[in-house]
Amino acid sequence: MSDTLSIIRPDDWHLHLRDGPALRAVVGDSAKQFARAVIMPNLKPPVTTVALALAYRDRITTALSEAGVAPGAFTPLMTLYLTDNTSADEIDRAHESGAVVAVKLYPAGATTNSDAGVSDLLGCCGAVIERMQRVGMPLLIHGEVADPAVDVFDREAVFIERVMKPLRKAYPELRVVFEHLTTKDGVEYVRDAQGPVAATITAQHLLYNRNAIFQGGVRPHWYCLPILKREVHRQALVEAATGDSPRFFLGTDSAPHARGLKENACGCAGCYTALHAMELYTTAFDRAGRLDRLEAFASLRGPDFYRLPRNTTRVTLRREAYGIPHEVPYGDDTLVPLAAGESLGWRLA
Prior knowledge:
The chain contains 13 helices and 15 strands. By secondary structure, it is of the alpha/beta class.
């Protein structure tokens, strides 16, 4: 059994960096292990135009410099927040910018800062989707319905029937990423769907089932959306991530929230994993006995789907104890990483 693992430098195809002091606090954690990251646009106000995306990229670049990250060592890949009022011309501007790589769909009310999201995808956004299909720009989908009549654990499966299947039928060549997949239903859909479809998978959904949220009491730092699911779904995700299909790749969905915003009567959804993302993923693949498949999942499939070159540098992970800190600085507050206080068996060199 090898004590070291060397892989092509990975990328994070789904990342929340926030803004202001929060951005400055967390951006270095992603830059130390990933070469690129797809940056989510759900700020307040949301990043709805190319001009806003470029301004946000400039703030990220400044924060990287302040964190001591060498120029060019980490590239933020920008996205637009899709709304009922997004224009097809904005898609052309995004495509021509070279900086905006995708558009993100948040069903209105589905997750953090999604109030400005889409109310009726096919009804309101047909012209935009058609333009995206034409220029080859991916649509990144938060795949849950926001219908209060649908159980929170069933929202992904219902989304597939209500939204994904009609969307794919109407726009069969649209490039779609089903973000942070969480269910066996989702795995089977992505695996078997016709056309250019892929999915990202988080470390928490590979490592934990929904019992983790309630082990010894309610544990808010395991609460995210989409929520952790039953064990049968976790196992399906592990099989997908460690298998041979090129449609499944790494996306942390790392989502920082100040400790006080998580540990209160209405705690925010989101797990902070950027600090130790590769240690978490390596642990998941090691437990599955498939370390040989980590490089494909973390470093190869994502660039191939996004039609970007694979990275040429490498990172090394060592089989040694890594104690996850109980908290880390977060501007004037603190931030609790996923599984704080626990120990993992791998460390990024």
